[in-house]
Amino acid sequence: MKSKIDYRNSLLKFSEGKYTYRDYVNVKGWFADSKEDQQAEEALFDQWKDTSNPSDENKHKELFRKIHYNILLEDRTSPTPQSWLFYYRQIAAILVPILVLTGLLYFILDLNPAGSQSWVEINAPAGAKTEFQLPDGTTGWLNNGAKLWYPTVNSKNREVKLTGEAYFRVKHLMQGDFTVHVPDMDIKVLGTKFNVSAYENEAKTVVVLEEGKVEVAGTKTKFNHTLKPGEILSFDHGYNKLASGRIDPTIYTAWTQGFLVIDDEPLDEAFRKIGRWYNADIEIHGKIERNLRLKATFKEEALDEVINFVSISTPIDYEIIEGKYDASGHKQKNKVIIQLKLE
Amino acid sequence: MRTDESKLLSNLKLGDHTAFEMLFDQYADRLYQFSLKYLKSKEIAEDVVQEVFMKVWRNREIMRIHSSLQAYLFQITLNAIRKYFNEQAKTNDCKHELLVELSENATTVEEFADYQNLLDKLKFFIDNMPEKRKAAFVKKKIEGKSLKEISEEMKITTKAVEYHITEAMKYLKSQFEELKIQGLIFFHLFLPYSL
């Protein structure tokens, strides 16, 4: 090497925080001239690779929102700053007692050729919630459009199948696990309270543990994860990505008390949730950016009130088309058309 | 489990915001920690993270990743750090002059084994000053502004600015003297080198 200065050593000492002024001068010299000492750059790349990844994915979420916001401002051809002022506004809600519709309960036969196990299906109609109790004493709630199957014959191992969202209070028995099967994963529990959301039209399957302990095993993609109280596990099937973290479980179980909670969620996800809650078809015309988010809690508001709230707090226009009654007197689904406000 | 990187990148190219967020989740903290090592400021480290990801988004359609995403991100991060580091160099020179002035001996400062510690102490004492004094002092001694500029900015007379700076220097000198007496800085000069 033609230069005698040990840039590498000075850089590493500087970065670790214990260095002399002369180290600093070397670092300054190195940064001032990028052609100086390529080997030092390789050492820095090694150091970069060794820098650990975060354990908490939410650590920089605020920063991400800031970046996303700027990106959107840049991407918009004709920015309308006024409409963004509403972006952070939250929607308050009025509290009214909850109305719960009872679900349909009927028997179906499992057509699995391997066995003649018959299953009972519990069904929460779209736009309603159903409280259930299983023969073993386990109780819980099914959210809009969710379905739960359990075997008619009591076996030692308790197993249920679920699509959609459910909250479980699993009865603790001395012997016999309780397992919830959803398309992506098997959730094995002891006595515990937890929430599972596994809607087929959502990208993520989400498990939130309120009490106790559950073990989650991936079925298509193999993974194993044990959840502690207050933890969330989400699996994104599109990206095959598993994420976990700590949250406030009450946000995820509030629906069992009749609250529609939208916790800072992207608008498209929020609308799918609202659509399920009110059994309405919500169509989004055009593209709505992912960084348009909504934070709101509703209880017992009518669909038009909810949509109106959303339109005040985000730059959208909407139209509600009331469902007509068909020949047999059944009301068809309401339809909501959402569009990004154009100015 | 590892996210499928090439899928992430191809979706990012199409402008997928979820892919962008995942990329952010995967690399933001590494980027932040690494920048912090060289820039010694949380705010500036966050600026680097922001700048790098804005760049990734803007260049998503044209970016060509030769070796790995890892190397690509490292390169643009290092460039951003370089830029901020060079911007900081001037104020760092001012701080150094100040430390030399306070210790009354350039060699002592330059050979002290823990230079960062001196800077931290300096920052601590400056932050400890009354608000106006601190403002006048920082503008003069660290940002290198003239008395006239400062008096206009702060709407006080140049005499008052001078007074604040004199008092601030007196205060800093006494604090550094105290540290020397306590043996908390510069003491190593009387001990054999251990590095």
Could you please describe the fold and organization of this structure?
By secondary structure, chain A is an alpha+beta fold. Chain A is built from eight helices and 19 strands. In chain A, strands 1, 2, 3, 4, 5, 6, 7, 8, 9, 10, 11, 12, 13 and 14 form a 14-stranded mixed β-sheet that branches. In chain A, strands 16-19-18 form a three-stranded mixed β-sheet, covered by helices on one side. In chain A, a hairpin with a 4-residue loop joins strand 13 and strand 14. In chain A, helix 1 packs across helix 2 and helix 1 packs parallel to helix 3. The longest helix of chain A is centred in the N-terminal third of the chain and has 15 residues. Chain A is flat, with a radius of gyration of 26 Å. About 11% of the residues of chain A have low confidence. Chain B is an all-alpha fold and 195 residues long. Chain B folds into two domains: 83 residues, Rna Polymerase Sigma Factor, Chain: A (Orthogonal Bundle), CATH 1.10.1740; 87 residues, Arc Repressor Mutant, subunit A (Orthogonal Bundle). In chain B, helix 1 crosses helix 2 and helix 3 runs antiparallel to helix 4. Chain B starts with a helix and ends in a 13-residue tail after the last helix. The relative contact order of chain B is 0.07. The C terminus of chain B is likely disordered. At the A-B interface, helix 1, helix 2, helix 3, helix 4 and strand 14 of A face helix 2, helix 3, helix 4 and helix 5 of B.
